[in-house]
Amino acid sequence: MQPPRNFEVQAKTCTIYGEKDSLWPAKSDGDRLSKLQVPIYQRGYSWGEAQIKRLVTDLINAFREQDQAANPSLFIGTMLLSEAVDSTQDIIDGQQRLTTILILLKALQKNETEQSDFVALISRFSTRVANEQQHWTDFNNGAGDAANNAYKVAEDLVETALDQMGIGKNNEIAEDGEKSFQTSAFIQFLLRSVYFVVIEAAGDISKKLQIFDSINTAGLDLGASDVFKIRYYDFLKAVHSKGESVFSEINELYKKVHESGGIGKAPLCTMDDVLGLYQTVVIGR
């Protein structure tokens, strides 16, 4: 059994890319971390039209208003990261916003003749969520089935949101009298003037979930069965030295319960029902 790890928290304000205090440094720096990944126990990318449109609209409006601001910038929320392991940090909270911004950057890049800093960032972001590793690779390479790839669906929604904001393929703003939309300047705004409060937590997954629960006001709430799944996975890793493959086994168990009524039909029971019954048995003992 591994000894308990100390629980430490640090917080700072970061842009996505820049010379200092950024998620990804513009230059090599041994004190900074270069890779971010969505851990295996996280949910997959799940933002839909409403969330994507709101974020894209807020970002464009902030960029358009920068002439009236001495130091144009936009704060878009918190991000919870793990401590670094081999120069890589897990994204515990904030993956939906960050992933959407990367998808937005990729959509904007289509209209640019020169490669931007964004190209270097793609290789520094990855996901270990089941079935999404290949989807992210296909998205970046323009391969695979778009209908079954959440990242490609999101890219279509991002492009629709851009069109609705008056930004067409020719980088023109539809409103009369306004100058051409400066895509390259907007890309730099996203990379260097959009801020997160980044919380870095060292310790067991259960401790990090406590922080997640306290700061996750805009995302999807974790249900009791979601929390149990993650904490059980953490327990098996810490106490029984299990590897990441055990999480796939847990997922299969959850899948069997979910499909207990037949594929495409309502389940005979939910994992919350199963855990509730088990709790009753344990208390009864």
Structure description:
- With 285 residues, this protein is of the alpha/beta class.
- The protein folds into two domains: 8-215, no CATH class; 224-284, no CATH class.
- The chain has helices at 49-64, 95-109, 118-122, 133-141, 150-164, 183-192, 205-215, 224-240, 245-258, 271-284, and strands at 8-18, 22-25, 35-38, 74-82, 88-93, 125-127, 194-202.
- Strands 2-1-7-4-5-3-6 form a seven-stranded mixed β-sheet, with helices on both faces.
- A hairpin with a 5-residue loop joins strand 4 (74-82) and strand 5.
- The longest helix has 17 residues, at 224-240.
- The model has no long low-confidence stretch (mean pLDDT 79).
Which secondary structure elements does this structure contain, and how are they paired or packed?
Blueprint lengths: L7 E11 L3 E4 L9 E4 L10 H16 L9 E9 L5 E6 L1 H15 L8 H5 L2 E3 L5 H9 L8 H15 L18 H10 L1 E9 L2 H11 L8 H17 L4 H14 L12 H14 L1
Parallel strand pairs: 1-2, 3-5, 3-6, 4-7
Antiparallel strand pairs: 1-7, 4-5
Helix pairs in contact: 1-5, 2-5, 2-6
Sketch the topology as an H/E string, one letter per element.
EEEHEEHHEHHHEHHHH
**Looking at the structure, what is the overall shape?**
globular
Structural class determined from secondary elements: alpha/beta
Please give the alpha-carbon distance between the first and last residues: 27 Å
Total strand count, please? Answer: 7
Strand content: 15-25%
How many distinct domains? Answer: 2
The helix content, as a percent range, equals: 40-55%
Number of helices: 10
Mean pLDDT: 79
Main beta sheet, described? Answer: 7 strands, mixed
Low-confidence stretches: none
Q: Return Rg in Å.
A: 21 Å
- The strands making up the biggest β-sheet line up spatially as 2-1-7-4-5-3-6
